[in-house]
Amino acid sequence: MKLTGTVHRFGNDVDTDAIIPARYLNTSDPEHLGRHCMEDADPSFASRVSKGDVIVAGKNFGCGSSREHAPIAIKACGVSCVIASSFARIFFRNSFNMGLPIFESDEASAEIREGDTVEVDASTGLIRDLTTGREYRARPIPAFMQELIEDGGLMEHIRKRGGI
Amino acid sequence: MTIAEKILAAHTDAGDLEPGAIVKVRVDVALANDITAPIAIREFQGAEAPLADPDMVVFVLDHFTPNKDIASANQCKMVRDFALAHGVGNFFDGGEAGVEHALLPEKGLVLPGDLIIGADSHTCTYGALGAFATGVGSTDLAAAMLTSHAWMKVPESMKFVFTGELNPWVGGKDLILYLIGKIGVDGALYRVLEIGGPAISALGVSGRLTISNMAIEAGAKAGIIGADHKTVEYVKDRAQRPYTVYESDPDARYFSVTEFDCSNIEPQVAFPHLPENSRGISETGEVRIDQVIIGSCTNGRIEDLREAAQILKGRKVARGVRCIVMPATPAVYLQAENEGLVKTFLEAGAIMGPPTCGPCLGGHMGILAKGEKAVATTNRNFVGRMGDTGSEVYLAGPYVAAASAVTGKISSPSEVVS
User: What is the mean pLDDT of chain B?
Assistant: First the structure.
């Protein structure tokens, strides 16, 4: 599967309060959460983002709370995937569990610019910056987590395979 | 092997426990709250199967309770209806509910050697009892409700040894803020903190719970403190089931081993907007404040309230400062009442709040306006964490928080107590 979109850049240590502030956690409705995605980091983000767009961030993206509302909000506002140099671990597992494609690459994180168009091959982890022509390889993911993605998340994985 | 590896080994049939291996583990306790349980319940209901083990599921309605608005009330009702219909073994609501990570140890629901997952990042608190406890998302919770199992990447451990004696006014909060200041908010990413040494042995269980609580603020998967006689003393009358005390082997492999001499550590304050921005109280400068929060899963236990009361007794909260004291559980509140601490707080001009996570995450009961500053005994000081994105949170222990309430600016307790 190829994911293609315009890049929105964020910095290091983007926390889950910035991705979806706690004041919106009185609901888990994806559409509502999507409307407030990244609000405390960039209030105009949710109105600017288009379907398929890509978030590129620095280190430790998604640190803080375990709220699955964060990857839900990112997915619901139309973002197709997140590229960062590293992810906080709960955000990392939540994304695989609920089917938000994420990719780790120090080089991609450092070099891809705001507004570039990127294309990501979700199955190989090949990231192509179509604006600059540069290519990056995301860090490989363990076989089990690749399975989670192929199955469509943890609950589908359990349904298909009769257990974790 | 490390404690973390031993606990994982005891909960899996997998032979390979090399760091990085992904294993399927049996879960002893699966926890969620009024914010994370609704998503878990919806995912679980999609599977149309019964709870694998109702006794291992714990739901605590503590974040936006007492219900802060209609939407929160609806979320709580959904969890309540499910818990009652499915016979969830441990469901805490109303006057039985408290801040989850203070409540579960107090009730003896989390024990040494346990493997605990919680749909709340501060689930790592229980590491202080010698358990492997880690925060997960709601989908992991749903999977555990369905199968009693979770998937786990075997982590490496980083060992931190605290030596020497604690300086005056220094407690668990100061040690963990100091540690996070040294390694950063992702300094332990994907790894386990194993924390010990003579200064940790000298701390009580409450101070240790504070330390493990903030392991996540260094990115850690768990923050484990080996169980000792104090731990066993704490759990023995609370435990309703057997438990196992694990120690790391002398030849256990660590990613790193670091020693901190506590004689170099003064009371700490973490400046906005990351917990890693910690500095000694002598380096804080003049920071005027509008609010003080004393409570939360980090510092809302009776020992914390005693520290705050020691400072506030016979003194007054500075004019213009709102000092909100929230005992973390009903039992802590009652104990504070019985010890006269509630009277001390009220006479000082503090506000007594109910056991709730409330203001810690900017939920309710202590929200900051634009430009306002708070000293809080909570665990996060991210942008907008306690209210407006233009507000600021400074993290500290109960002594510093109470002293700051008295002076109206970030202060060392020694400025207030002669």
Answer: 97
State chain A's mean pLDDT as an integer. Answer: 96
Residue B120 has its nearest CB partner, among A27, A66, A72, at A66
Name the one residue in this structure whose structure tokens are 């219900």.
Answer: B67
User: Beta-carbon neighbour count of residue A4 at 10 Å?
Assistant: 15
Distance from chain centroid for Cα A153:
14
| Number of residues assigned to chain A | 164
Concatenated DSSP letters for B247-262? ---TT---SEEEEEEG
What is the distance between the alpha carbons of residues A116 and A129, in angstroms, rounded to a whole number? 7
The DSSP-derived string for B312-331 is HTT--PPTT-EEEEE-SSHH
Q: Among candidates B190, B140, B216, B381, which has minimal Cα distance to A87?
A: B190
Q: Where are the beta strands (DSSP E) in chain A?
A: 2-9, 54-57, 81-84, 102-104, 117-121, 126-129, 135-137
3-state secondary structure of B36: coil
Hey, is the C-beta of B20 within 8 angstroms of any chain A C-beta? Answer: yes
**The pair of three-digit structure tokens given for residue B89, joined into one six-digit string:** 């073994």
Task: Select from B186, B382, B385 the Cβ nearest to the Cβ of A59.
Answer: B186
Cβ proximity of B65 and B51 under 8 Å: no
The answer to whether the Cβ–Cβ distance between A25 and B185 falls below 8 Å is: no
Distance CA A102, CA A82 (A): 5
Among the partner residues B71, B190, B362, nearest to A22 by beta-carbon distance = B362
E-strand ranges in B34-175 read 57-60, 90-92, 115-118, 132-135, 149-153, 157-163
Which candidate, A86, A82, A78, places its Cα nearest to that of A106? A86
Per-residue pLDDT averaged across A82-109, rounded?
A: 96
Which tens digit of pLDDT belongs to each residue from B64-116? 999 999 999 999 999 999 999 999 989 999 999 999 999 999 999 999 999 99
Cα B176 to its chain centre, rounded Å, is 12
Instruction: Give the per-residue pLDDT at B418.
Output: 77
- Per DSSP bridges, beta strands A117-121 and A102-104 are unpaired
Residue B11 touches partner A, C-beta closer than 8 Å: no
| pLDDT value of residue A150 | 87
Q: Which residues of A touch B68 (CB under 8 A)?
A: 26
Query: What mean pLDDT do residues B143-161 have?
Result: 97
Cα of first residue to Cα of last residue in chain B, in angstroms, is 48
**Which two three-digit tokens encode residue B78?**
């959904």
Token pair, residue B101, equals 């990570």
Contact A69, A24 (CB under 8 A): yes
Nearest to B222 by CA among B158, B295, B144: B158
Q: What are phi and psi of B3, to 5 degrees?
A: -55, -45
What would the pLDDT profile of B198-253 be if each residue is shown by its tens digit? 999 999 999 999 999 999 999 999 999 999 999 999 999 999 999 999 999 999 99
